Each structure stands twice: as structure tokens, then as C-alpha cells.
Amino acid sequence: MKKNIFLKGVAVFVTLLSAIVIVIFVTDNTYLFNGVRLTYLKGEKSSNIDDGVDFPYNVIETSEIQPWEKDEKYNQIELSNSLKEELKKSETTAFLIIKDSKIIKELYFDNYNQNSLTNSFSMAKTMVTLLLGAAIQDGFIKSLDQPITDFLPEFIGDDHAEKTTIRDLSAMTAGYSWVEDYHSPFSNMAKAYYGNNLEKLILSINFNKESGKEHEYLSGVTQLLSIIIMRTTKQSLSEYLSLKFWKPMGMRSNALWSKDDPKGMEKGFCCVHSNARDFAKLGRLLMQKGNWNGNQLIDSTFVSKMITPNYKAFKNKPAIYGYSLWTDYQYNPIFYSMIGHLGQVVICIPSKNIIICRLGKKKNKTKEGAIPGGNVYYYVDEVLKII
């Protein structure tokens, strides 16, 4: 009797499991298998900073290394007890403070070190806009005001898309019907992160409102911009980033850029795997208005646009975003920041000539501010207490 009940239970379970699998295939949600395999079956609840080896990737090659200088007080300055505790609670893996282009504080935790490659998450969006600036400078794209349908004919006939410009993609003012949902396994974000046909997904989503009016943070529009850069330069994002920035800046190591498929494209909205010192170099490039050791890698006017709040997109609320950079010009001191999932940040404080880079596994909300995520206000305040 017990055996029969057990066998019936097994049969019901197998039937239900088979039905679920069939539904997943029929609804074209096979990315869920990949998502489960790379999260729950590995003891994770979501994407993590060490998942670079879990996906196909392109290598971003460097050349002759140009190392950071160390300040004469390198690692002599003591962090506050509050900051030490915060770094511990948030499972920080790397924390750098750079003053006057020299490293003054450098800490690594939990067996991570200067060579550890971890996930940038959305800090990659800033890199994509840097590539946009390079593509304009190289003549591949005419200007920020060029219509996206010049490069994405798939959207011809979509009235809102036809009035959308390159500027709208970089400034996050595109009326693209993407839903920025980090929790649902059926969201666009989950499909983009764990799926294997990113271009098909991105080009299948339409525009549902007028662009250029208001800021709305959408990872999908960065992927649209990535497609445009790849089509115009006829290079992968990794190749172009290596050529225009990684090699000229003498990055410490090659980096990895995760892809959807071995023959596919990079996830431009996220997932450059690099080390803290090299991420911080991007902050220095921005603070120097695109100049690197006397070489103007990208037009200074373009960088100024990136780091300046796009005020017209923030009516009756704080202007906290420029062109793929978070900004707060109302805070004292003014700062701007690259920010990624789980609190990856590169914060630039131009008036103090300070760069802060924090990488880690969790994000805390120690101090609230206009800019969401990343705990940027807390890091700015705490660092200025000791520098």
C-alpha cells in the first residue's frame, strides 16, 4: 500500500515537472534553466560578482601596463570604525581611495586582491557611453542627435522610435517599453541576463511613449546603444574598448565582457569583469575630461556632457543623471559616480580630486540620498572625514 502511494506520488511529480518543462519550452522561456543553474544550484539567490566564468565572454586586451602611483602616506590613514563595519557588513571585496592621482588607501578582503576580476554590473553602462563618444569622434556616428533608426531599421514604422535619438539612449530618456524589474524570473532583465539571444530580445520590444522628455533608467536602452556601436564600428564592444581605452590607459590586466552566446554579443548593460585599480582608472579619465597622461582619448566636451546632470529630464525633482553617470550637483561636495548592482561604485569628487572605488557582494543603505543604490553618500562623507 505504502509502495503504491509512493509510486503514485512520484508519477504525479514527474508529470508536473514534465508539464512545467513543456510550458517553459512552448513559451520560449528556456533561459530559466540557465538562471536556475547559475543561481540556486550554486547557492546564490541572484547574479553575483564572480559569475564571469559562468557565461561566454570576450577578452578586453590591455598592453603595456601603466601602474598607479602610491601616495607617500599609502595605507597609513585609518578608516573610521563606522566605515570599517560597513565594509564588513556589505561583504566588500575591494576598497580604494585615490587622491591627486595617487592611491592613498587600498584594502582587499576575503581572499580577493589586486588581480581579482569581479563584475562591474551597471558600471558598464558608463563604458558604453565612453565608446559612443569614441564612435562619434571616429566618425562612425554623426552626433548625439542622430536618429536611432539610421542604425536600427528594425524600428522604422514605430513612430516613437523614429523620433528617438542616440542622445536619448545614453541619457536614459528613451520611451522604450522595457521594464526594469530585478525580482521577477520572467522579466526582461532575467531574459537579458540569462538568455542566449540578446539582440532578438532587445529588437522585439517597441517604444511606447515620446522620447527626450523624462529620465527613466532602463538597461535595455544601453543594449540598443551597444548594438548601434557594434554595427557602426564593425567591432565587438570588447575590441573597441580595448583599442580606445584599455590599451591606451595601460590597464593592469585583461578584462572579460560577458556575452549571451559564444557567437553572440556582449551584455552592454552590465558585466565587465575587471579589478578595482582598473575600474578606478575610468574615474580618473572622467575627472581629467578624457585626457590620459597628455593624450586626449575622448573629446572633453563629450565628457562634460556625461558628468553634468541632464536637468531638462528631471522636472520638479533632483537632477541625478547625466549621460550614463549618476550625478548630484546639489550635494556638498558635488560628485558623480558609476554605480552597479550590489553596490559596485566608482565615485569622483572633482573639487577634492578624490576617487573612491568600492566593490563587493552586498549593498547596504547606510545613508539615503537623491541617488538610489550604491551607498554613495555614505562613502563620500566617510572618506572626506579622513582625507
Automatic annotation (TrEMBL):
Q: Which Pfam families match?
A: Beta-lactamase
State the coiled-coil residue ranges. Answer: none
Q: Which residues cross the membrane?
A: 5-26
Q: Which UniProt keywords apply?
A: Membrane, Transmembrane, Transmembrane helix
Cited InterPro entries: Beta-lactam-related, Beta-lactam/transpept-like, Diverse_Enzym_Activities
| Location of the Beta-lactamase-related domain | 91-365
Work out whether the entry's keyword set contains Acetylation: no
- Transmembrane recorded as keyword: yes
Protein name (record):
Beta-lactamase
Please give the organism.
Answer: Ichthyobacterium seriolicida
